[in-house]
Amino acid sequence: MRTKVDEEIDRLLKEGVISPVKHAEWAAPVVPILKPVGTVRLRGDYKLTVNTVSSLEQYPIPRMEDLFAALTGGKQFTKLDMSHAYQQILMDDESKKYLTVNTHRGLFTYNRLPFGVASAPAIFQRTMEGLLRGIPFVAVYLDDILVSGVDEEDHLQNLETVLAKLEEAGLRLRRSKCTFLEEEVEYLGHRVDAQGLHPVEKKVKAIMEAPNPTHVTELKSYLGIPQMGSPRVQRWAVHLSAYEYHIVYKPGKNNANADALSRLPLSEDVRESETAEQVLMIDLLDDTLVDTAKIKHWTAKDVILSQVHGYVLSGWPSETEAPLKPYHQRREELSVMDGCVHWGARVIAPNKDKAVPERKPEMVASPPHEDVARPAQHASSDKPLDFSTLPRHLSPEEFLQVFGMTVEDFDRLALWKKNDLKKQARLF
């Protein structure tokens, strides 16, 4: 980069654009800009000096719509590009001292209008429009000039007038970037021909294939797209005229906050993973949501929580067994409400699978007849067994054989009384 900067300084000295000075009241740091062709453009960082205190030159930069309107009816087009555009405008002696830049080779002051001055675009646009004013089929946007005509003869006449004006003013063109008498040219990001304006394919492709913005800097690169589309809203409305629709204005303050996913959409090339369905699916639980009664029931039957429940109500010992130590360490945060153990504002729900099992007699049902109800189907139910559906020809002894029991076993377990067996029995 140092070599390229030296080459640019030598060029500017040779062409009289800059002059060395030994001292200056104003000196801005120099900023080298690398151009696509490989050379550099030197500009001063004048926001620290002259741009801060000077009055900004006021002159409107033409809109693209106004420029293209001046070319309506043109058949062929010539595009002219000026060489080092700003640096062809001479500065007066009073202004030079404010345009000094500081380089690794010392101080230099500009004799021509430098890049980086805030008023430079307005000054140059005013100068070029004043020079070429009155010539038909001519569009001027800073250093880019487009010339046309209703036919080839008219085109050549307009071009000759423009070139004569530039030569008279001592302005130079860059021959390598000029095109003459073309049916189609690219101007200000558009493709221009006799039929009108067309988008440049490579620019459209760049927008279509641009990645989704992920931070503010990338988002700013898209801010010019709505401005490009606004003049075409009327044409879009013509396409929509075949549909019935209503445009409703909604203030931004009424918009709800978007979630993270809608603010950062996924790219189009995201591949579906094998587990994607699991992410987008909530399994239907077999059990319904638990309530206080269930948690209270499970707490009473849980080996650990039942002890914690008692200690919270009656007081904790100084030492506890290993399974109780986590609760003992948080004993100041535990409380009991409605038979449930609370940790702060949360309820400790025990694992019902680890609860103390209810004592039930081990029974093997082997009914002698297929129409005898299987007691195993009722063993896990809280509802009383209804023996009215059992065959009437079974005696009490035969009925007990269904459970693998005898009358003596029945009396010993005290599950029900022998005298009440013919009426109804309940199995707990």
From TrEMBL:
Q: Which UniProt keywords apply?
A: Coiled coil
Q: What class of enzyme is it?
A: hydrolase
Q: Where is this region: Disordered?
A: 354-387
Q: What is the lineage of its organism?
A: Eukaryota, Metazoa, Chordata, Craniata, Vertebrata
Species name: Gymnodraco acuticeps
GO molecular function annotations of the record = actin binding; RNA-DNA hybrid ribonuclease activity
- Per the record, the gene is LOC117545231
Q: What is this protein called?
A: ribonuclease H
Q: Which residues form a coiled coil?
A: 149-176
EC assignment: the record states: 3.1.26.4
